[in-house]
Structure formats: C-alpha cells, structure tokens
Design goal:
CATH superfamily: Galactose-binding domain-like
Protein name: Proprotein convertase P-domain-containing protein
Mean pLDDT: 90
Structural class: mainly beta
InterPro entries: Galactose-bd-like_sf (IPR008979), P_dom (IPR002884)
Organism: Shewanella surugensis
Helix content: under 10%
Domain P/Homo B: 18-134
Shape: elongated
Radius of gyration: 19 Å
Bound molecules: calcium ion
CATH topology: Jelly Rolls
Largest sheet: 5 strands, antiparallel
Order of helices and strands: HHEEEEEEEEE
Keywords: Hydrolase, Protease
Low-confidence stretches: 1-6
Number of domains: 1
Length: 134
C-alpha cells in the first residue's frame, strides 16, 4: 500500500533472506542402476535467487561397494562438479558433506545429484541429500 508508506518513512525494514531459504533437501529414495552410464538422478529445486557462493552438499547413499560410484553435482545452468569418483574401495555407504565454492553460479533452479555405478554386482540407493547455501 503505497498510500500508507509515507506515514512510516522513518521506519527501516530489514529482511534476512539468507535465514529463510538457505537449506534445501530431497529425502526420496532413488535406486542406483547397476553399471549404467546414466546413473540415478535426484533433483532439488532452489528458489534462492543470486550467486550460489559457498555451499555444503550433504549426501547419504547406501551401497555395498562405494568404489563403484561417481557422484556428480549439476547446477541449474549445467555446470558439473564431481564430488567423488570411484574412491572408497569396498567401503559400505556414503555419509559425507562436501564443501564447494560455486561462486559465479546462479543458485535458482533445479540442482541435480547424479550418481553413476560403474561396476556390476554391488548396488545401492540415494537415500537423502541436501544443499546449504552458506
Ligand atoms: Ca530417504
Ligand atoms: Ca555396482
């Protein structure tokens, strides 16, 4: 209401949007296809406008041989960041937080976690992941 605004012209309004919308998650389970170059995709829609800056990506995957896996993060504008690639050997499961500098990349839109299982036999599931804008 612009007509009422002048009555409050000495009042300074401050809103901290970073507190309202800096954490996004996807809790849906996505089975990872065994030895499949497309892998499993899980998306998170972010309505946090502006530069992504530094982010924390938390990933929780159940798997019986995590050395099979390539984990890629795709930004809304298509930049790819490899979180890890065939590391961990025969270790079960991934529960990690990756700290990434995404300065210069727009935050708003669909972020995709793509998990590719490169070796036949052992299988797993994306259980949960999240993005926190710091
Ligand atoms: Ca889940
Ligand atoms: Ca496998």
């Amino acid at each position: 209401m612009l007509t009422g605004y002048s009555a409050f012209s000495d009042v300074e309004l401050i809103a901290d949007y970073s507190l309202a919308s800096n954490f996004y998650e996807n809790d849906t389970n996505h089975p990872i296809p065994d030895k499949d170059n497309n892998g499993a995709q899980s998306s998170i829609t972010v309505n946090h406008i502006g530069d992504a800056g530094n982010i924390n990506v938390e990933v929780n995957i159940s798997h019986t041989y995590t050395g099979d896996l390539i984990l890629e993060l795709h930004s809304p504008t298509g930049e790819k960041h490899i979180l890890q690639k065939k590391s961990g050997g025969g270790t079960d499961d991934i529960a990690k937080v990756y700290s990434i500098d995404m300065t210069g990349i727009e935050a708003q839109g669909d972020w995709i976690l793509n998990v590719i299982d490169t070796v036949k036999n052992d299988i797993g599931t994306i259980e949960h992941w999240s993005i926190t804008f710091l």
